[in-house]
Amino acid sequence: MKNRNNSSGLRSPGLLGKKPIIGLILFVIGMLIFIALAFNLIYNGPLIRWDLSIANSFHSLALNSPVWVIDIMIAGYYIGLHGIIIVSILLGLYFLYKKFWCEFFMVAVSLGISGLIFIFLSHIFNRPRPFLLFDKPIWAGSPNIPGFPSGHTLSIIVLCGLFVYLIYPKIKSFFGKVILFLIALLVVVYIGFSRLYVGDHYLTDIVAGYAVGIAWFGLSLTLVELIFKKIHKEGNVNNG
């Protein structure tokens, strides 16, 4: 795939198409972590006790927190749901307008299907959320659908990973690249922590969402780039 780092607009660097082993490594690492956590859940492993202890600790902390702290934590739900949907739509419309088809399908496949992955996996494992254990939930908006893995952390990993992947090659300074990574990391950590804080997920739900997000990010973007690389190559052969 031709390097398009210097082309006008927000474009893919084509790295995963050139080196699909990177995407494969991300997929394998993410899936191994997820499988380990899934087995722990199915067979009532030792992490279950940690989950319960951590959930109780955060619930006690949240009950004694100022209202503004609770509001910030609750905002993580909306940012991680509606915020991701809005940004995904805007990105998709931008790439559609620019006719950047590879990037458009990156958004459509990676972010569009991530929600379906969450629904599919959560209903397979059917794990109740921690707030159901408490007499006094932190907020009234907690969803009642199963919570393993976390859909918020799955999607935010894919979204932030996509932004870093698209923007990183365009930043010239080392300091700028570090800032980009730190902002993405902060957003990812905030979304996961906020879901844990308000009692909507156990810790292993959060980590499992991150793991699936890493796996799906690596797989989906690599496949899209490989497909477009093949299309580009076949087009050049036909034109030649």
Record keyword descriptors for this entry.
about 240 residues; mainly alpha; 8 helices; about 0% strand
Report helical residue fraction. over 70%
Shape: globular
Classify the beta-strand content into a percent band: under 5%
Distance between the termini: 17 Å
Given the structure, what is the number of helices? 8
Total number of beta strands: 0
**Sheet/helix structural class:** mainly alpha
How many domains, in number, for the residues? 1
Biggest sheet overview: none
Radius of gyration: 20 Å
The helix-strand sequence is HHHHHHHH
Low-confidence stretches: none
Could you tell me the mean pLDDT? 92
Structure description:
The chain is an all-alpha fold and 240 residues long. It has one domain (16-228). 75% of the residues lie in helices and 0% in strands. It has helices at 15-18, 20-42, 47-63, 67-98, 101-125, 151-167, 174-197, 203-239. Helix 5 (101-125) runs antiparallel to helix 8 (203-239), helix 6 packs antiparallel against helix 7 (174-197) and helix 6 crosses helix 8 (203-239). The longest helix has 37 residues, at 203-239. The radius of gyration is 20 Å and the shape is globular.
